[in-house]
Automatic annotation (TrEMBL):
Residues 1-20 form the signal peptide. Residues 249-319 form the Secretion system C-terminal sorting domain. This is T9SS type A sorting domain-containing protein. The keyword Magnesium does not apply. The keyword RNA-binding does not apply.
Amino acid sequence: MKLKLIFLTILLSCFFNVKSQQCTPTITSPRLGAMFPDKVVFCTTETETLSTTQTYGSYQWYKQMWDWQTPNPNPWVAIPGATSQSLVINGSTDMLYYFKVSVTGNDCTAESSPVLADGYAYGLPFLMANFTPGTYDEIAPGVYNVCTGASVVFENGFPAVYGMHTWFKCVPGSNPPSSTDPCIINGPTGDSYTAMTSGKYGFYACTEYCPTMCEMLSDMAFIQLNFGNWSFCSLGTGEVKTKENNLNIYPNPAAQFLYIGKESEKYTEVSIIDMSGRLILQKKDHKYNEAIDVNFLSAGTYLVVSKSSEGKTYKNKFIKR
């Protein structure tokens, strides 16, 4: 009798475990997990089908707008008419939304873990310039005088994301560039290029995940190099002069907090602008010892425009890690 009770207990336990597992919906799709475990990464404006791996009696799909804060303050909203086992989402309208499904069946109600529809997981390309100390001088944002004989190594800030590169020595006349554009540097197609002559350098690159998804650097992100026998070339100090139109910005690159300004000045306005010219953040009445939280920014290069209470305007670049 005791053995029968033990067997019955084990049998019931297995039954309820199986039932519990069947009542936990799991979302799947062709591209889910291809780059990140809990994300569907789109290629441009294509569609993607989300579905549950199990069949249930009823379904209701929900979506929630992405937010950089944790926990996410945006509400989950039921999608009208989304009551079947699958849901088709679109890369142009559903990007940066979370999705989940609530199901009922076999006397149980449960919901899935959320997945994110993401196209910005690529990170927009940005140009990193590596100089040899003592061989260059920044004369304006993105413009450098460089000693003859020195070299500057340019790199794509997201080398693992982008494959084929087209490098330029001036800003091309179209986007995408014509294969015969005179600005193209023939030969190099990797994620880095070493420059030893004057020019305005940048690149056009295509992602490896979506070979037809390509990005051109903004004109503002191109870097101008002027090679010559400049007066500072013989100093050998390894220092870079500070310009009057620049402010102290630190740390640079920055991961979370950024400090901007001079101790002797106050700033009526500080603006952070991305390389496409879009205003990302603006702060009024800023003081040099107040940290600006940039943790929510995507990795890349940004322009900081600061206006002092004396009417001066300063422009700086900083890199978000």
